[in-house]
Specification:
This protein has 576 residues and is mostly helical. Helix 2 packs parallel to helix 14, helix 10 runs antiparallel to helix 14 and helix 13 packs antiparallel against helix 14.
């Protein structure tokens, strides 16, 4: 019965995704925008209403989110089939998708906050789903990092009281002229940086890998981490009208570079894919900082298609590896799980920007646009070197997965014949191959000519080839060296420039130190002597005295009688 309910939800979401995509295409063709207002309460002169804003960006994004959600729920029934609480898991995923829908269609900061906070709360419930200490620590780091963004959004809501309404779409022209809107822009950027895990809030994204893999496929492709990018797409006029765009560009480039380097030294399969998500989020944010809103949205959609497939393939591999996620145990898997490895490599090639896959159309267009923009050398280096790092860790992952020696147990059984999981993966694989070109034709039907001269014509291709060489060099060079020679560097890189320690140990160390001292000196010290334990000892001693007196009552009576008799005798003799 539960299976049919799960399939019903999956097919409903798939049908809604097709409907929204069809509506999005019509809205692009007719250049339409719908604003629907629903009056919830009307009391005297007070009116509480809910606004829904539908344009081609919202409809296409909802279509992609619902398509991936339907595939993930279909996949989850097999992946989480042995879980006793699978119904609760499916309901949490549906609530997660509903929160994202609420945020996408809202032109109002209040209703955006409802969806925004819903994403943070449900993500916490999903990260701690396995209910152990590691997942709880990861969940706390996730929800506390996102609470910073919630506070920034609340402050921007309070500031927008000055303008009489929270419907920010009414003030798009005012964004460019009003200098006080700069404060709202700074708060919105801070909120988006926490949700999309930009520096210095990057540490929660790899930690969120404690969640089940279907959740990772949904979160890291189209829902939680992309909410910040989507919010900045809506506020792009505000950002590009001030120097906030330059700040966003620099932070996003640093995030892209940092996550690309960290992924080259990571051995956890899910964390490698999570760090690649962080790298692509940095790329989206940096392009948004350059003022290319539509190009950011294009890469957001194309990235969602192949990244969800990557996580699904990784989940199936981990399932067969008895929940081992270390890529050093994998090797030569193309002979045992050919279908999964083919799909995993298609996703990796799409991530690298291999020609005519989904990632190629957006990433190649982004790099060509960067060559046409007047960038300084530092930003130019970050863009192209980070692209090379993407190819580098993808090649390294392919080598560990396919070409290296098998390092698993002597007795093992691989199986990639699970129809439910393979069906979901194949659907996303088809979209990873065809989705990029389809989105390109839809979104950019009047593309301007991109004309590059000289060495710039071959720069992108040469960067990709250099990334392949760099990935092989990193693998062979690290394999030939003693690990002790690299332990400090790998610790620095693996900790994401110590951001994990800065986000956890640095913040909590002072409070933990003070707590230990207070516990030692008060609860185990003076309060112990003067408080409950001291009173307990006092009463116990008193009770012991009373008990001894009661036990020896006759003896005590005779002794006291004797002393009183002798005292009276002495007094009487003295008087005579």
């Amino acid at each position: 019965m539960k299976f049919y309910i799960c399939m019903m939800f999956s097919f409903y979401l798939f049908g809604f995704s097709l409907m929204f995509m069809n509506m999005g295409l019509n809205f692009i063709n007719l250049n339409m925008i719908y604003i629907m207002e629903w009056e919830i309460i009307s009391l005297n002169s007070m009116s509480v209403s809910m606004l829904l804003y539908l344009d081609w960006i919202a409809l296409l994004f909802m279509g992609v989110v619902l398509l991936i959600s339907s595939s993930v729920i279909f996949y989850s029934w097999s992946y989480m089939g042995a879980d006793f609480n699978i119904s609760r898991f499916i309901l949490l995923v549906l609530l997660f998708v509903f929160s994202m829908m609420m945020m996408i269609v809202s032109p109002n900061l209040i209703s955006i906050l409802l969806g925004w906070d819903g994403l943070g709360l449900v993500s916490f419930c999903l990260v701690i789903y396995y209910q152990n200490s590691k997942s709880f620590n990861s969940g706390m780091l996730t929800v506390m990092s996102n609470r910073v963004g919630d506070v920034m959004l609340l402050m921007s809501i309070a500031w927008m009281l000055n303008y009489g309404s929270w419907n920010f779409l009414m003030y798009l022209d005012l964004f460019k002229n009003d200098k006080e809107m700069f404060i709202i822009g700074a708060l919105i950027i801070m909120a988006a940086m926490t949700k999309s895990a930009q520096i210095p809030f990057s540490s929660w994204l790899p930690a969120a890998m404690a969640a089940p893999t279907p959740v990772s496929a949904l979160v890291h492709s189209s829902t939680l981490v992309t909410a910040g990018v989507y919010l900045l797409i809506r506020f792009s006029e505000l950002i590009n009208s001030s120097f906030l765009s330059e700040v966003l560009l620099m932070v996003a480039c640093l995030t892209m570079f940092m996550s690309g380097v960290a992924a080259n030294f990571e051995f956890d399969l899910k964390k490698i894919i999570a760090l690649s998500t962080l790298s692509q989020l940095g790329l989206m944010m940096s392009i948004l900082g350059l003022g290319m809103k539509n190009l950011t949205f294009f890469h957001l959609l194309s990235h969602a298609l192949f990244k969800s497939m990557l996580f699904m393939c990784a989940g199936l591999v981990i399932h067969n590896m008895k929940n081992i996620q270390d890529i050093r145990f994998m090797g030569n898997m193309i002979k045992f799980m050919p279908l999964v490895c083919i799909n995993l490599n298609i996703g990796n090639l799409a991530l690298c920007g291999f020609p005519f896959l989904a990632g190629f159309y957006s990433k190649d267009l982004i790099l060509e646009k960067c060559l046409m923009v007047n960038l300084n050398w530092l930003i130019f280096f970050f863009f192209f070197f980070s692209t090379g790092l993407t190819v580098s860790y993808s090649v390294r992952l392919m080598y560990f997965n396919m070409l290296s020696d098998m390092n698993f147990y002597s007795l093992y059984l691989y199986n990639d014949n699970d129809n439910l999981m393979i069906s979901s993966i194949m659907l996303m694989m088809i979209l990873s191959v065809l989705g990029g070109s389809g989105l390109m034709w839809i979104l950019f039907f009047n593309v301007n000519l991109i004309y590059l001269i000289g060495i710039f014509q071959y720069l992108i291709l040469s960067v990709l080839l250099m990334g392949i060489i760099m990935g092989l060099m990193i693998f062979f060079y690290l394999s030939s060296l003693n690990y002790n020679n690299l332990v400090k560097f790998m610790y620095f890189v693996g900790k994401m420039w110590f951001l994990i320690d800065l986000s956890t140990i640095m913040i909590s160390r002072l409070f933990l130190f003070v707590g230990v001292k207070l516990n030692k000196f008060n609860e185990y010290g003076w309060l112990e002597k003067l408080g409950g334990q001291g009173m307990y000892n006092l009463f116990m001693n008193y009770n012991f005295v009373m008990k001894s007196m009661n036990i020896n009552f006759i003896k005590n009576y005779l002794i006291s009688f004797f002393f009183w008799f002798m005292l009276i005798l002495l007094i009487s003799m003295k008087s005579f």
